[in-house]
TrEMBL record:
Keyword Translocase in annotation: no
Record protein name field: Activator of Hsp90 ATPase
Source organism of this protein record: Martelella mediterranea DSM 17316
Signal peptide: none
Coiled coil segments of this chain: none
Amino acid sequence: MQTVTAELDLEVSRIIKAPRDRVWNAWVDPERLAKWWIPHPLICRVVSLDVRPGGAFVTEMSENDGPFVPHLSACFLDVLPGERIIYTNALTGGWRPAENGFVTAIITLSDHPEGTHYRAQALHKSRADREKHEELGFHDGWGTVVAQLAECVETKT
């Protein structure tokens, strides 16, 4: 498990009251991911979700029924099915260097007596990048999407 460095990293964590496989499936299924990946009322479109090391992870967003614009262009670094996803926007699919990447995300899922412990860590190369990400609303944004994810998987029958 990655240790969070307060100077460089940010983290959100939540207990999701659903089995880990249901949370995992909501992450790796493009249709399900689109439902929770971006804070509502923004709309998400999953362009590419190739969940394997080197695979592309590309999403777009639309606001107020406007045109879709780029949201995330990233590359999966590591995938351990049901347990961990690591991606970065410092690379694009196929390990191509990105122009303006600044974060690596580590998503971990572990069993919890009430369901799944979901942990999302955002690692930055500098304190300035961490502060910028926090000022852009990291806790509200990432916290909101984790709540949306929980809503999607906790209500499934």
